[in-house]
Recover the amino acids of this structure.
């Protein structure tokens, strides 16, 4: 340390201001620990708020409005063609959605006495880090929580750096609405953003390497979405790879294997995310990082270094904000000496497409792969009164149940509002509820939530 | 008929044990209750007898290994019929409790009660134990391993009551043992995480690293807990035990004829029990959660015993109700069991007050640390002949230095001084003590 440097001593320093980081910091402060957050952007919210969950859901809301208006024609209500003002839309997303939530987080930080320091954190051993940036300083800590998140994955040969090629962050900035958009990757990011651009008027082509959309998810949950995507997108190429991407006359020329080269106005690369653990000086600590950049932690979010904890995407899959938030609270509680641990059984996952797809706990595919006997109950929304009144019968609710005890091990839902419905499934799985408990709980009629009860009742029909 | 024997719930929040010795070999045919393994827990070194008779098919552990509750220790073949039902062969780790076994299926192992097999959670053993998040938190706080709890909820769900029952089984008769504090961070020894990192000692010369034994670790954690949680206050006093010493000497032979060695510690125990009866707040535990002082209507006194492995505190029950000779006899037997590593968990818990006699090793006094969750501890150093002025004359008297350390949250200095004064009075006037025996 040179003369004139700022030196701070804290109980806990949180590196990264995303959902995992701010949850950890708020909880730590609540438990009486002197806590600061170091964030490169000097802001709370992270990728989730500024370039992920929140902006994508704001845009998906717009897509939903457009689609609802289209569907209204079928039931006798016509509005004419939508006129989209991209400036108004972008301003709404940036100021009224992101800005409002960001100010809210800043307010919480102020009230809890959590200071957010702008700059890049570089560890100097297991008890200190330096902050590089406008206000360089050294922070001596009792405990550190690494919550640096993840970045969109970059694959060689997919035109990284080429004009017109963007990742999810770029796509969410909504610079313009390209006439022809190619989406590489049929996971949730590609499908959500493809849906947004299709609703705004783009012709969307999707390329997916495996033989189906949303690899890993139960096929019966994907099917209604796949049918919708087939109509919404100009083309979907499964079992296909992109061989080459290059700039050509202001457009992007793409060679899909086995097809003729085609040009697009923009290309969205959505092939996953990778843990962000480099450039942090973690090699000066005892933290263990694997070849994918993932920091190894135990169920108490402790790394191999007794003073350093890690939470969220930087600790690997599932890279979901709500998992990071739970981990953040646990890390803070463990540091405060509480007997907390990440013992959660159900981490719900939601794809915010139309229809939405959501699941939690054990999937049917996982049960099959593990040769674990399960009973599966499916309830088709074609038999739901509420789905009929919404003119949306393209849904399915399924329960995966232990055949011996009748315990709910997993839940899957596809259909509009699946992301909200899965909360009940997560509660059932986490509290080890039986199908009988779900079947005997009164669900309001007519609602989509009844499908959960109906599925459970179908399992008990013979008993 | 084959079955697997798992490390049972050891109680008192113990979740693992170190295998000290395996006393059988694969292929041996052994009787029920024959010694099977010797294990060392945080509390004691105990022998685990075989729950069944049969042939030892496979031994899954070896000496020096640390195993968790629920881990398979031994597989038996040709188990004598009538003992227990066969283990399901679906890769299940444990067998269901048998009707032939005593009802306390997860009782702590002891020489007297053979440990029975830990109950299996019904259905799938893989994956999480079914319980609500709040129940799981309760189990963590009480130091209960969910896998070793017998579930009573629907579909094999572990309930809060199941967890509390498992904790109570493992606790003292009065109430559940205090929850173990969660270690603050990654190192196996909790306090290390809070301490600043150590320098590289190698830079000044060669070093050697020796792993801590279970017992050492437990002592470290317990002492840290006590020292950091309890505001300790210590009171010094001295007792003139010239007369008591004479009484002991004069009766040594008579006592020996009845198979008892009279010692000062025996009298200390009785005197302490009598004094505690008049000062009940020192025979108590502070419940900070409820804001209550738990006054114990029994006087189970612990005596610190130095062993090769470390400090162990066996407990003599109902010292106030037992005659002096019975207390002395029990003390001798208990100390021997402890030194031989044969103490049972029941020998070591339920104490209400602790006495440590460091006289044998010399010194002029010591300030002990309270044995959490007790309120007070008495240390005595070596008694020495001193020149004492009595009525203007210098006389040689045998003086015993006493140190009473107690929890200042529970009692004040004056209270401690009164307890010490009562103790001194009883020790200085064995005739008065006799009235209480």
């Amino acid at each position: 340390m040179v003369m004139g440097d700022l030196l701070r001593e804290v109980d806990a320093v949180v590196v990264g201001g995303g959902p995992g980081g701010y949850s950890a910091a708020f909880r730590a402060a609540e438990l009486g620990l002197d806590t600061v957050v170091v964030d490169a952007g000097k802001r709370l919210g992270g990728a989730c708020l500024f370039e992920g969950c929140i902006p994508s859901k704001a845009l998906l809301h717009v897509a939903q409005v457009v689609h609802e208006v289209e569907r209204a024609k079928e039931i006798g209500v016509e509005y004419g063609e939508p006129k989209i003002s991209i400036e108004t839309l972008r301003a709404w997303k940036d100021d009224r959605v992101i800005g409002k939530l960001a100010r809210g987080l800043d307010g919480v930080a102020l009230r809890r006495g959590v200071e957010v320091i702008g700059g890049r954190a570089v560890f100097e051993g297991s008890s200190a880090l330096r902050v590089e940036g406008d206000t360089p300083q050294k922070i001596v800590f009792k405990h550190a929580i690494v919550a640096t998140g993840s970045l969109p994955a970059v694959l060689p040969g997919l035109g990284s750096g080429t004009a017109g090629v963007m990742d999810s962050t770029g796509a969410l900035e909504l610079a313009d609405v390209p006439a022809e958009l190619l989406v590489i990757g049929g996971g949730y990011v590609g499908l959500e953003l493809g849906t947004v651009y299709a609703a705004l008027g783009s012709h969307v082509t999707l390329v997916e390497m495996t033989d189906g959309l949303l690899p890993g998810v139960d096929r019966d949950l994907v099917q209604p979405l796949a049918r919708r995507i087939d109509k919404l997108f100009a083309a979907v190429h499964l079992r296909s790879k992109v061989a080459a991407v290059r700039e050509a006359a202001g457009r992007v020329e793409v060679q899909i294997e086995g097809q003729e080269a085609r040009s697009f106005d923009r290309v969205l690369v959505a092939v996953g995310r990778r843990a962000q653990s480099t450039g942090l000086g973690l090699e000066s600590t005892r933290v263990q990082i694997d070849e994918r950049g993932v920091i190894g932690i135990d169920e108490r979010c402790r790394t191999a270094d007794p003073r350093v904890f890690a939470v969220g995407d930087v600790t690997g899959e599932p890279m979901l904000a709500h998992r990071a938030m739970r981990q953040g609270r646990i890390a803070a509680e463990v540091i405060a000496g509480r007997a907390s641990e990440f013992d959660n059984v159900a981490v719900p996952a939601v794809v915010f497409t139309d229809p939405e797809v959501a699941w939690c706990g054990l999937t049917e595919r996982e049960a099959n792969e593990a040769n674990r006997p399960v009973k599966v109950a499916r309830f088709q929304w074609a038999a739901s009164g509420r789905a009929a009144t919404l003119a949306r019968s393209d849904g399915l609710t399924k329960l995966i149940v232990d055949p011996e005890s009748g315990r709910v091990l997993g839940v899957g839902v596809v259909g509009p509002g699946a992301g909200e419905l899965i909360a009940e499934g997560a509660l059932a799985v986490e509290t080890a509820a039986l199908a009988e408990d779900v079947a005997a709980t009164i669900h309001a009629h007519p609602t989509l939530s009844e499908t959960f009860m109906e599925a459970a009742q179908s399992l008990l029909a013979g008993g | 008929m084959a079955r697997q024997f798992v490390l049972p719930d050891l109680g008192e929040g113990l979740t693992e044990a170190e295998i000290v010795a395996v006393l059988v070999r694969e292929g041996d045919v052994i009787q029920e209750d024959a010694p099977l393994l010797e294990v060392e827990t945080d509390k004691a070194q105990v022998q685990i007898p075989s729950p069944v008779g049969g042939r030892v098919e496979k031994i899954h552990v070896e000496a020096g290994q640390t195993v968790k509750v629920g881990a398979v220790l031994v597989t038996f073949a040709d188990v004598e019929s009538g003992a227990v039902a066969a283990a399901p062969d679906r890769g299940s780790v444990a067998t269901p409790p048998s009707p032939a076994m005593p009802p306390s299926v997860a009782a702590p192992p002891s020489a007297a009660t053979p440990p029975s097999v830990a109950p299996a959670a019904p259905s799938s053993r893989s994956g999480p134990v079914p319980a609500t998040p709040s129940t799981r938190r309760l189990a963590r706080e009480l130091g209960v391993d969910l896998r070793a709890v017998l579930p009573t909820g629907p579909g094999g769900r572990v309930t809060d009551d199941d967890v509390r029952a498992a904790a109570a089984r493992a606790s003292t008769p009065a109430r559940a043992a205090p929850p173990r504090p969660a270690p603050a961070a990654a190192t196996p020894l909790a306090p290390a995480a809070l301490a600043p990192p150590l320098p590289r000692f190698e830079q000044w010369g060669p070093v050697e690293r020796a792993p801590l034994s279970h017992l050492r670790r437990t002592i470290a954690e317990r002492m840290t807990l006590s020292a950091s949680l309890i505001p300790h206050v210590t009171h010094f006093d001295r007792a003139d035990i010239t007369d008591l010493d004479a009484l002991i000497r004069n009766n040594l032979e008579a006592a020996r004829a009845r198979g008892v060695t009279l010692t000062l510690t025996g009298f200390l125990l009785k005197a302490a029990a009598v004094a505690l009866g008049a000062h009940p707040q020192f025979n108590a535990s502070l419940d900070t959660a409820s804001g209550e002082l738990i006054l114990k209507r029994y006087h189970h006194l612990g005596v610190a015993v130095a062993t090769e492995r470390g400090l162990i505190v066996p407990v003599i029950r109902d010292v106030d109700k037992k005659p002096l000779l019975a207390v002395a006899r029990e003390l001798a037997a208990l100390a021997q069991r402890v030194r031989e590593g044969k103490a049972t968990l029941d020998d070591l818990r339920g104490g209400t007050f602790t006495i440590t006699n460091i006289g044998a090793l010399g010194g002029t006094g010591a300030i002990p640390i309270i044995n959490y969750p007790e309120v007070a501890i008495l240390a005595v150093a070596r008694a020495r002949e001193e020149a004492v002025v009595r009525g203007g004359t210098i006389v040689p008297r045998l003086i015993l230095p006493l140190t009473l350390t107690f929890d200042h949250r529970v009692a004040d200095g004056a209270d401690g001084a009164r307890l010490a004064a009562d103790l001194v009075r009883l020790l200085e006037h064995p005739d008065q003590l006799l009235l209480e025996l």
About this structure: The radius of gyration of chain B is 25 Å. Chain B has a mean pLDDT of 79.
